């Protein structure tokens, strides 16, 4: 007679319900805060709800939106790229210098993109092949790229760009208040979202951020992945530099100074861990729009730039501290409770 077999245990796919995994996240908190700030600004600040405000808001945050896409992937691996602001300035100068030499704008822009690709590969090789920390490498190339940019043009500025290209950079989609630059941004957003969230390459990025050694033993090409991400970072920063040049109609060696700090602040505020292994692109996009909306609203309210920087810094610090506190509380809840030690009872004979 055969013994009855126990029913097979079914292990759930996730430890929490879907609605909690979707809604109760740091990224959704940023999205909710963005909506609240926008609604409050439109109802209390005169002129914020005008269509032209949305146009200038999107034009202002576009360089940050573009660079934040590859920066998110880089920081998920536990690395960082501080040279992106200088690469924006260098690509702007390369474009301006070539246009000044009567090179067609299309070829000048292509040369700037190649410079961004080479600069990103240089960063990636120093990090992967040489084994240097990305923080030290990109601090060095931040100064290097900026120095080359200033050395090419000095204190002069190039402003004679083709009017049709400048108009295209500032034009809106017909019948809307959305600039045309949102088209390439939407394409890049879709590419990076699929790459990070829906491919084995993206899962390898998260694995590297959680544990580089474990990822390598799991078959992830750690060095190759990081090199590709640094190349993408330099390439997209160069593209942002071309747009920056057309947007303001000027190529200068000091263009986009300090932009890298705004990008990193937005990425961290959007839920990407500074230690790697965590982050989602929609949270980063929402954080960029939140910072841009807050800055635009405060400027319309006649708040000085220094106060705006202070408010942005406080918001970033609060978000980092809140994330650390939430992680501590979650770890405390998951920790198994220790049962009290057993006490031996003896009986008298």
Note down, in words, how this protein is organized.
It is globular, with a radius of gyration of 25 Å. The chain has 14 helices and no strands. By secondary structure, the chain is mainly α. The chain has one domain (20-327): Orthogonal Bundle (ABC transporter involved in vitamin B12 uptake, BtuC). The model has no long low-confidence stretch (mean pLDDT 86). Helix 3 (51-76) runs parallel beside helix 8 (182-197), helix 5 runs antiparallel to helix 11 (222-248) and helix 8 packs across helix 9.
Structural topology:
Elements lengths: L17 H6 L2 H19 L6 H26 L7 H17 L4 H24 L5 H20 L9 H8 L11 H16 L2 H11 L1 H6 L4 H27 L10 H11 L11 H20 L4 H30 L15
Helix pairs in contact: 2-13, 3-8, 3-9, 3-11, 3-12, 3-13, 4-5, 4-6, 4-11, 5-6, 5-11, 7-11, 8-9, 12-13, 12-14
Order of helices and strands: HHHHHHHHHHHHHH
User: Number of DSSP helices?
Assistant: 14
Tell me about the largest β-sheet: none
Total domain units = 1
User: Helices and strands: which structural class?
Assistant: mainly alpha
Number of strands: 0
Spans of at least 5 consecutive residues with low confidence: none
Main location: membrane
InterPro entries: ABC_transp_permease
Protein name: Autoinducer 2 import system permease protein LsrD
Membrane topology: Multi-pass membrane protein
Observed structural traits:
globular, single chain, mainly alpha, ABC transporter involved in vitamin B12 uptake, BtuC, 14 helices, 349 residues
């Amino acid at each position: 007679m055969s013994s009855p077999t126990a029913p097979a245990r079914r292990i759930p796919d996730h430890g929490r319900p879907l609605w909690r995994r979707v809604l109760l996240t740091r990224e959704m908190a940023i999205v909710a805060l963005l909506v609240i700030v926008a609604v409050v600004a439109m109802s209390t600040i005169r002129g914020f709800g005008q269509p032209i405000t949305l146009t200038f808001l999107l034009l202002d945050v576009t360089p940050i939106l573009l660079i934040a896409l590859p920066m998110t992937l880089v920081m998920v691996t536990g690395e960082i790229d501080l040279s992106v602001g200088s690469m924006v300035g260098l690509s702007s100068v390369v474009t301006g210098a070539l246009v000044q030499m009567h090179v067609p704008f299309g070829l000048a822009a292509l040369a700037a993109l190649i410079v961004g690709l080479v600069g990103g590969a240089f960063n990636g090789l120093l990090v992967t092949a040489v084994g240097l920390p990305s923080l030290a490498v990109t601090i060095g190339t931040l100064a290097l790229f900026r120095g080359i940019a200033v050395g090419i043009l000095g204190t002069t500025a190039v402003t004679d760009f083709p009017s049709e290209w400048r108009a295209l950079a500032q034009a809106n989609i017909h019948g809307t208040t959305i600039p045309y630059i949102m088209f390439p941004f939407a394409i890049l957003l879709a590419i990076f979202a699929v790459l990070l969230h829906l491919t084995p390459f993206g899962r390898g990025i998260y694995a590297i951020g959680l544990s580089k050694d474990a990822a390598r033993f799991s078959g992830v090409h750690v060095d190759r992945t990081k090199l590709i991400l640094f190349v993408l970072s330099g390439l997209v920063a160069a593209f942002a530099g071309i747009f920056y040049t057309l947007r303001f109609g000027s190529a200068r060696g000091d263009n986009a100074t300090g932009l890298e700090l705004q990008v990193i602040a937005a990425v961290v505020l959007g839920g990407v861990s500074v230690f790697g292994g965590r982050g989602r692109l929609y949270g980063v996009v929402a954080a960029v729009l939140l910072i841009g909306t807050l800055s635009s609203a405060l400027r319309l309210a006649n708040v000085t730039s220094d106060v705006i920087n202070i408010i942005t810094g406080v918001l970033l610090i609060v978000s980092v501290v809140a994330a650390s506190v939430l992680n501590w509380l979650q770890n405390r809840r998951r920790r198994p409770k220790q049962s009290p030690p057993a006490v031996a009872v003896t009986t008298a004979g």
